[in-house]
Amino acid sequence: xxxxxxxxxxxxxxxxxxxxxxxxxxxxxxxxxxxxxxxxxxxxxxxxxxxxxxxxxxxxxxxxxxxxxxxxxxxxxxxxxxxxxxxxxxxxxxxxxxxxxxxxxxxxxxxxxxxxxxxxxxxxxxxxxxxxxxxxxxxxxxxxxxxxxxxxxxxxxxxxxxxxxxxxxxxxxxxxxxxxxxxxxxxxxxxxxxxxxxxxxxxxxxxxxxxxxxxxxxxxxxxxxxxxxxxxxxxxxxxxxxxxxxxxxxxxxxxxxxxxxxxxxxxxxxxxxxxxxxxxxxxxxxxxxxxxxxxxxxxxxxxxx
Length: 305
Description:
- The termini are far apart.
- α6 (about 110-120) runs parallel beside α7 (about 130-145) and α12 (about 245-255) packs across α13.
- This protein has 15 helices and five strands.
- By secondary structure, the protein is of the alpha/beta class.
- The longest helix is centred in the middle third of the chain and has 18 residues, at about 165-180.
- The protein is about 50% helix and about 10% strand.
- It has a five-stranded parallel β-sheet with strand order 2-3-4-1-5, sandwiched between helices.
- The chain has two domains: about 1-30 and about 215-305, no CATH class; about 40-210, Rossmann fold (3-Layer(aba) Sandwich).
- The protein is elongated, with a radius of gyration of 22 Å.
- InterPro entries: P-loop_NTPase, TniB.
- This is AAA family ATPase.
């Protein structure tokens, strides 16, 4: 009984509330998106905070956030936006003031498409058939009216699907948007995104890269595992951070990507609940049906043959 009580005390308060609920309710809780702070994310947030509060000048600084797929880029920028929303004295969100706008880059270097994506963020009327110049003016107006300080463009590597000439036009338009509005811009993408900023020396100098590296077996990784376990309403302690074999197994199967780490632990937790095991161990990790990223890639290649 004492072991169970000690385990329960180690869980977060909101996790304790669902501890005695049904299997389905506990699994749904585990599936919910949660934010877990870790050093690399804090470092990126600190850098973005500087950009958000930077005094207006003719040449605003920017940033290029680079990381592999499923390594936490989108979660980091979404969390930063949520932490920096404008609220009035009563703590109510100010919908007319949007300090941070997150927009996805178009599937090709299409400025019209890009401006439409930004306008959609403001839920304002416009015609897709409008000239690019008109959309550009609308974008500048609404970003200014909303007192936007930081524009974040996700999936910037998408523009590499178009010809170099259009890539240069697209990147120059982004640079001009920053200059005209005197706002900072953060570009986000996989390592191919480095090619997008290398179209021009001025652009590469402005968007200095910050890298999200993969996880390795160190104190930061073990701390992450300990934090994750506190969010799992399993009946028994798994000790995934203090049992070296389990930590190594998680690192190996996930290949060091934080998105894969979360997916693996989620899948393993569901397996443990469904099979009345109620804890994560090596057998559960290897039996839960999780397929590592490289194996999925090879599987796709085999299917394509």
